[in-house]
């Protein structure tokens, strides 16, 4: 396929050894007449595909970090094992992408040096395994966590312009080994196919910005106000979730709403708890081992007050931020107990923040009584009713009649024929597009999206005009004074044109230099061929 090697013996040896797993010098390789065959080219294409496949998975891995705490909780509920699986994901992905990247770089360097692409069988097996592992990861994501596909689409609004520039840069650099191969191969058909494919890809990349949209491509004076912060179970990165300490830490982060979950004990006391079982966030297995698997509502308030609701936070460290807690915060966290709704309402009233909650479990046979008991505690607490944001859909009409001042938050989009206007909605961030957020904002409908932890996602929703976001990372988002990036359309247009023009000039330069180098080699190669022909004739005579 390609002409004999032209680079120095040392370079050839250094490149061939890790790629082909054989210590062979350039001279020995030349004597053996090793050349890159069509079979070798097919493995190079497979290597390129595996690299791109793994690169896409790396992108997905970074995107789903926003929601990975939910995955950790899911695994705990299934296996009763707590581990930060995001570290496992990132380490495994880093190993796969590093391996395929190194092989691809070696292959491109070998091609530039004119060396044969003899991929060792061990690498072939490992590449197949890499492809299978990544394919299994994508399949599992699609089956068990399908909403993350929507997250990926949203992420493109934040990364699209930069991915475009990166793709143009990568394909531009690929022009050098491509030109080297084209000027050294004798297969005209292969030359034409490669050039057509490369030109088609480059044209598509040059025109890609026509299809790239992002809410952050706007003028500075068009930027909506910064979204308000809603503390998801308080400030769960700084304190045990759904505790008074978590509420106070959320207040320190300037959140406007404390979001929590309410359950009602067996003797009718509403308390803060997210899970239906107590095993994840308390020491119930040590205090009541025979009752640990029971629903939280099966315990009376006296039993619940005996449980430690803070030590698990220090032991399991659900977030990396636990490492940075001060000794005082650690001591306070270890003392936390399950708070009642009455205690939470009093703390919210004193801190002058709103409280938003779900009432669980929705399928309980005594759910109507849960609603009545919860509403009774709210009315007796003395908190201004406009600071209470009511999420539960069950018996909502009764709540409106008994406590008309309570603000009602709907976990759905508005309907065409609403009997009463919907003023507040609370939805997963994947369920609303930027266009819908803008429309709701124009119609004076408050939109709260959950759970938003990463600055890139917060930036996209900020540019879209969302009213508020529910977050685990209030201490991070409160420090953001501006979206990560904001570009006027004219500036983005200039960047697009300059990047495409520079890329085009570099590609032309690469092909020109490679052609010039190939012309310089041909006279020497011709003289060598004549000499070898004469020697062969003499030997035959």
Provide structural commentary.
With 541 residues, this protein is an alpha/beta fold. The chain has 3 domains: 1-145, no CATH class; 152-214 and 487-522; 228-269 and 312-478, Alpha-Beta Barrel (TIM Barrel). It has 21 helices and 9 strands. The protein has helices at residues 9-20, 26-32, 38-63, 68-79, 85-112, 121-144, 147-173, 175-184, 188-207, 244-252, 284-287, 301-304, 311-316, 327-334, 341-351, 367-381, 396-402, 434-442, 455-464, 474-477, 489-540; strands spanning 228-232, 257-264, 270-272, 354-359, 388-390, 407-408, 424-428, 446-450, 468-471. Strands 1, 2, 3, 4, 5, 6, 7, 8 and 9 form a 9-stranded mixed beta sheet that branches. β8 (446-450), α19 and β9 (468-471) form a beta-alpha-beta unit. α7 (147-173) crosses α9 and α7 (147-173) packs across α19.
Which secondary structure elements does this structure contain, and how are they paired or packed?
Elements: H1 9-20, H2 26-32, H3 38-63, H4 68-79, H5 85-112, H6 121-144, H7 147-173, H8 175-184, H9 188-207, E1 228-232, H10 244-252, E2 257-264, E3 270-272, H11 284-287, H12 301-304, H13 311-316, H14 327-334, H15 341-351, E4 354-359, H16 367-381, E5 388-390, H17 396-402, E6 407-408, E7 424-428, H18 434-442, E8 446-450, H19 455-464, E9 468-471, H20 474-477, H21 489-540
Parallel strand pairs: 1-2, 1-9, 2-4, 4-5, 5-6, 7-8, 8-9
Antiparallel strand pairs: 2-3
Keywords: Glycoprotein, Hydrolase, Membrane, Transmembrane, Transmembrane helix
Family: Belongs to the glycerophosphoryl diester phosphodiesterase family.
Protein name: GDPD2 inositolphosphodiesterase
